[in-house]
Amino acid sequence: MNMRVQLVIDEFNRHRRQFEHLCRQLTPEELQRTVPGSHWTVKDYIAHLCTIDGLIVPRFAAMVGRQAPLPDTPIPNPFDIDDWNEAAVRSRAERGIEELLAEAATHRERLLRAVAEFTDAHLDQEILYGGDRKALGIPPSRVRFGGLLWGVAIHDPTHTRDILRALPHRAEEPWIQEWLGSVSDALVPQGVREQRV
Q: What positions belong to coiled-coil segments (predicted)?
């Protein structure tokens, strides 16, 4: 395996372990808290992180000549990431944490199987990245795919910071402080960092 790819896979894995641990600690009351500055609850953010890989997998698989199932949440045409995320989260409102984490594990396994086949050529290519930029009024920008991949790898801690706005007492736990303190976006392109990942 390409050692640059191994570093990214390690980053994906370490953050997912911590994220799962946090999810399993949360009480039913904590899960229902609304995150300040958002209409989503803590559980909604968890559902988002447990479903988004399912949207990404088919594209990553195609990049290495493979196929992967399309997400069960229909993809709107024209595509809008915010609309898709809303639909994916809403359709899982009645699911429990373990069911969400099981779904996440399936998507993540497929995603990392594709990522493991990436080469330097994949990592170094430039792509046009839109992400959430439309909602922010920012035009798409060209970014290096390998840098975007690092942004995806830190998606769990990025939204954990959002979750902690609703759970400030959790943010004081040493293991959470050390986990989030260890996260670096140094390899993430400015075109990705300037908006929500």
A: 90-117
Secondary structure, 3-state, the chain: CCHHHHHHHHHHHHHHHHHHHHHHHCCHHHHCCECCCCCCEHHHHHHHHHHHHHHHHHHHHHHCCCCCCCCCCCCCCCCCHHHHHHHHHHCCCCCCHHHHHHHHHHHHHHHHHHHCCCCHHHHHCEEEECCCHHHHCCCCEEEEHHHHHHHHHCHHHHHHHHHHHHCCCHHHCHHHHHHHHCCCCCCCCHHHHCCCC
What confidence tens digit (pLDDT) does each residue in 84-121 have?
Answer: 999 999 999 999 999 999 999 999 999 999 999 999 99
